[in-house]
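Closing statement on the retinal sub-project.
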Amino acid sequence: MNLLMNFLSVAKMSPDDYVGFTFFVGCMAMMAASAFFFLSMSSFDKKWRTSILVSGLITFIAAVHYLYMRDYWASNAESPTFFRYVDWVLTVPLMCVEFYLILKVAGAKKSLMWRMIFLSVVMLVTGYIGEVLSRDNAWLWGLLSGAAYFVIVYDIWLGSAKKLAVEAGGAVLQAHKALCWFVLVGWAIYPLGYMAGTPGWYADIFGGLSMDVIYNIGDAINKIGFGLVVYNLAVQSSNK
Ligand SMILES: *C/C=C(C)/C=C/C=C(C)/C=C/C1=C(C)CCCC1(C)C
């Protein structure tokens, strides 16, 4: 009973608490998306099930982190940066795995996957250093992180991953292109949040916009969007 009361007692949320609101809605959206991906899994050809499973894992890991981040924000009114980066360091590499899984039909090698995972971890670790450990040099760490991001964008748009996607053709090429747009445009939301939340010459550009709101919007678009692209690919390929 005590446990239940504890669970039901919710901190107040003020109507202009956009961070709290986006944590709450983001959490719900991630949970709903996870249920959707997990429950649809068995209706697809075997070769797509792992991809759909990974889509569900990405949103599920995010849902659990959002639960914590929402509470952290509610009790401390402070950015839950630690949980944020733990979430990212688990889910962004899984997004790299998605690229590999859909390109496997064209003979993608594991080395492509590990290269992308490595670059994404470099991008996130340097971002964390700039946001937490060395805020005075946030611009420099942001720049390094941006360089790793740029290499990922290059690889998928013009590099080896692109070549494989063209070889695969059809629905796989289409899905690859859609994921590429998510990485180019959707992921570009994050450096904006970083600039809004760290000190630097650029800080005033985003005056008033909250880093966490920007990150939360980015997460919803990218994590659920990525999953839906893969879901769509599985639907198209299983119909034939
Ligand atoms: C689900 C979470 C995702 C897709 C997170 C992606 C995060 C990024 C693409 C972060 C990129 C950053 C830069 C390119 C520079 C500034 C530091 C970061 C880490 C915010």
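The chain has a mean pLDDT of 94. With this model delivered, the sub-project is considered complete and its resources will be redirected to Aim 3.
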